C-alpha cells in the first residue's frame, strides 16, 4: 500500500451523523502493480461518436473512466486494474484529447462532451455503468448523470471541477504561463521559454502541480507522461482542445441558477462517492463539503497529503473506497444511512486508511 492513508493531517471534526464511505477489504483487491503498462487501446465508433478507449478485461459489469483537462485514458491505468475483479473497464479519451478525434463541429464544452459520451454509452451497451470522472471529467460525468440517469449505476467524482474562481498562481504548472498572455516583449520571452521546455520537464511540472507528494509518482509513469506530451505535440487540434475546454469550463463557473454546475449536482440521483485530496491546488478542498451536500445520495472521502489526481497518486486507497461503494450499493447497504431530508451525510475526513 502507498503511504497516503498513513500521513498525518489536521484532526478530523467528530460527527457521528456523517459516516465515512465504506472501504472494501484490501484482500478482495489484487495487489497494486506499479509496473503495469497502459491497457490496450483502440478506436471505437458508437452513437455517431468516435473515441479512443483503453479496455480492462473483467466481469460483465462495466466501469467507464473519464479523465481531466490535459489528461487521457492512461490516467486510470492503476485504478482500472485494481477494480478489474469487480468490473471490466473502459477508459475514454474525450473528443480532441489523447488519441480521440475532435467532435464535428469542434465544440469543447462540458455539455458537448457529456452529450457525446452519453450517445457513445447508449449505443455501446445495454446496462447502466459505474461512471468515474476526475476534474473536468468529473464535471462531464455530473452532467451526464444528471441528464441521463438511466445510463449510470453509480458515480465517482475525484476532485471534480466545481466552480472555483479564486485567482491563485499556485494553480499554474509554470508561472510563465501567466506571463505568456501579456502582449509585447515579456509575453514573447515567456512563450519562447515555455516552448523550449522538453517533454520530461513538462511532465514533471504537471506532476508537481497535481500530486500532493510528487515523490509518489513511479519513474515509468513520468516517462509515460512525457511520451504522451511528445505525441500530443504533433496533433493539430491539441492546443485548441485544451484551451477551448479550459475556457468553456471557466465560463460554466459563471452561470447561475438552473444553468450552474451546482444545479447539475443537485439533479444527480445515483449513489455518488466524492474523493478529494486536501493538498489539491487546482480545485480547493474547501469545495468538497458543498459538493457532497449538493448531491442527493453522496458521501465524501478526504485524503490527507494527496493532490488533484488521487486515482493516480494513491490508486489503492481510491480503489478500496470505490469498491466499497459498489459492494454497498449491490447489497442494498449504501442507502441505509440516507438522512431524513433525502441527502446522504458526508464524512468530513478520513485520516488513516490501513491495508
Summarize the helices and strands and which ones pair or pack:
Layout: E1 41-46, E2 49-56, E3 62-66, H1 77-82, E4 88-92, H2 110-124, E5 129-134, H3 136-147, E6 152-158, H4 176-179, H5 185-195, H6 199-210, H7 219-232, H8 238-252, H9 261-267, E7 272-277, H10 287-294, E8 298-303, H11 310-313, H12 315-331
Parallel strand pairs: 3-4, 3-5, 5-6, 6-7, 7-8
Antiparallel strand pairs: 1-2, 2-4
Helix pairs in contact: 2-3, 3-9, 6-7
Helix content: 25-40%
**Major beta-sheet overview:** 8 strands, mixed
pLDDT under 50 segments (min length 5)? 1-18, 176-180, 336-355
Distance between the termini: 7 Å
Approximate shape:
globular
| Order of helix and strand elements from N to C terminus | EEEHEHEHEHHHHHHEHEHH
Radius of gyration: 19 Å
Number of extended strands: 8
Portion in strands = 5-15%
Number of discrete helical segments: 12
Mean pLDDT: 85
* Lateral arrangement of strands in the main beta sheet: 1-2-4-3-5-6-7-8
Broad structural category: alpha/beta
Amino acid at each position: 500500500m502507498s503511504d497516503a492513508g498513513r500521513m498525518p493531517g489536521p484532526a478530523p471534526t467528530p460527527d457521528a451523523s456523517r459516516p465515512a464511505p465504506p472501504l472494501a477489504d484490501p484482500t478482495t483487491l489484487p495487489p497494486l502493480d506499479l509496473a503495469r503498462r497502459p491497457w490496450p487501446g483502440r478506436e471505437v465508433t458508437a452513437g455517431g461518436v468516435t473515441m479512443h478507449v483503453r479496455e480492462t478485461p473483467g466481469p460483465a459489469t462495466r466501469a467507464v473512466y473519464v479523465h481531466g483537462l490535459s489528461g487521457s485514458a492512461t490516467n486510470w491505468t492503476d485504478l482500472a486494474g485494481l477494480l478489474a475483479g469487480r468490473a471490466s473497464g473502459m477508459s475514454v479519451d474525450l473528443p480532441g484529447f489523447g488519441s480521440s478525434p475532435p467532435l464535428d463541429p469542434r465544440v469543447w464544452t462540458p455539455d458537448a462532451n457529456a452529450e457525446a459520451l452519453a450517445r457513445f454509452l447508449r449505443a455501446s451497451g445495454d446496462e447502466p455503468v459505474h461512471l468515474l470522472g476526475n476534474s473536468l471529467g468529473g464535471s462531464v460525468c455530473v452532467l451526464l448523470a444528471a441528464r441521463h440517469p438511466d445510463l449510470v449505476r453509480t458515480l465517482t467524482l475525484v476532485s471534480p471541477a466545481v466552480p472555483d474562481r479564486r485567482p491563485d498562481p499556485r494553480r499554474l504548472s509554470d508561472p510563465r504561463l501567466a506571463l505568456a498572455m501579456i502582449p509585447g516583449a515579456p509575453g514573447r520571452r515567456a512563450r519562447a521559454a515555455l516552448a523550449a521546455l522538453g517533454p520530461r520537464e513538462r511532465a514533471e511540472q504537471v506532476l508537481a502541480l497535481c500530486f500532493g507528494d510528487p515523490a509518489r509518482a513511479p519513474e515509468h509513469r513520468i516517462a509515460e507522461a512525457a511520451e504522451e506530451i511528445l505525441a500530443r505535440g504533433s496533433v493539430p487540434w491539441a492546443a485548441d482542445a485544451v484551451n477551448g475546454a479550459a475556457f468553456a469550463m471557466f465560463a460554466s463557473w459563471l452561470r447561475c441558477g438552473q444553468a450552474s454546475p451546482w444545479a447539475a449536482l443537485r439533479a444527480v440521483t445515483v449513489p455518488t462517492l466524492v474523493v478529494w485530496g486536501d493538498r489539491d491546488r487546482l480545485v480547493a478542498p474547501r469545495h468538497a463539503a458543498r459538493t457532497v451536500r449538493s448531491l442527493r445520495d453522496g458521501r465524501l472521502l478526504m485524503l490527507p497529503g494527496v493532490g488533484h489526481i488521487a486515482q493516480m497518486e494513491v490508486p489503492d486507497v481510491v480503489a478500496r473506497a470505490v469498491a466499497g461503494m459498489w459492494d454497498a450499493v449491490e447489497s442494498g447497504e449504501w442507502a441505509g444511512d440516507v438522512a431524513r431530508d433525502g441527502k446522504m451525510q458526508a464524512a468530513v475526513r478520513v485520516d488513516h486508511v490501513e491495508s
